[in-house]
Design a protein that fits this description.
By secondary structure, the protein is of the alpha+beta class. It folds into two domains: 90 residues, no CATH class; 69 residues, no CATH class. It has two helices and ten strands; from the N terminus they run E-E-H-E-E-E-E-H-E-E-E-E. It has a six-stranded antiparallel beta sheet with strand order 8-7-9-1-2-10, covered by helices on one side. Helix 1 crosses helix 2.
């Protein structure tokens, strides 16, 4: 089931090893440098997903239309919700605010999936659905299932100063 091509970060486990695969979208920046909003990857989530996840996070934010059909949210496509004081919270002077970029990264994290291996073979499910909310049975896994990978979509945070400049970086950490 290892179709990991569209994911920004993949954390996979197996037989005493942990494999981290990163696919950052931008070149390495100097330490401490924050990418400009125009350089950040804001196409990790579809419009419907942004609106659904914003509601789930109780964010008064709405992506009204992908006016330029580029699949990425743009400042002129975002509005605050009626009856919420959001003027200047998401967009200021034609650019996204740090509050919007933080909210977008939280939405991307909610869009992560887990790869699960069980007796019936591998399957995927949303990370947010992995937890049941039940203190006695906190995970939705069956007894014979194990999480083998966590798949996080590419996000603006992957373009941070710590991201390697290579197209793919792999590191293995021994389980011992």
């Amino acid at each position: 089931m290892h179709d990991w091509g569209r994911w920004g970060i993949v954390v996979a486990a197996g037989l005493g090893a942990l494999v981290l695969v990163e696919r950052p979208t931008l070149a390495k920046k100097p330490a401490g440098a924050e990418p400009a909003a125009t350089e950040r990857d804001l196409g990790a989530l579809a419009r419907d997903d942004v609106n659904r996840l914003a509601a789930r996070l109780n964010l008064p934010l709405f992506w009204r239309a992908d006016q330029d059909s580029d699949g990425a949210v743009d400042p002129d496509e975002v509005v605050g919700l009626l009856f919420y004081p959001t003027q200047g919270e998401w967009v200021a002077e034609g650019a996204f605010t740090p509050a919007f970029l933080d909210a977008y990264d939280r939405m991307v994290a909610l869009a992560a999936e887990v790869e699960i291996l069980g007796p019936d073979g591998p399957r995927r499910q949303a990370l947010r659905d992995l937890y049941s909310g039940d203190g006695l049975q906190p995970l939705t896994l069956d007894r014979a299932e194990i999480v083998t990978a966590v798949l996080v979509p590419p996000a603006s945070s992957l373009a941070s100063a710590s991201a390697p400049s290579s197209a793919t970086a792999c590191s293995m950490v021994s389980g011992r």
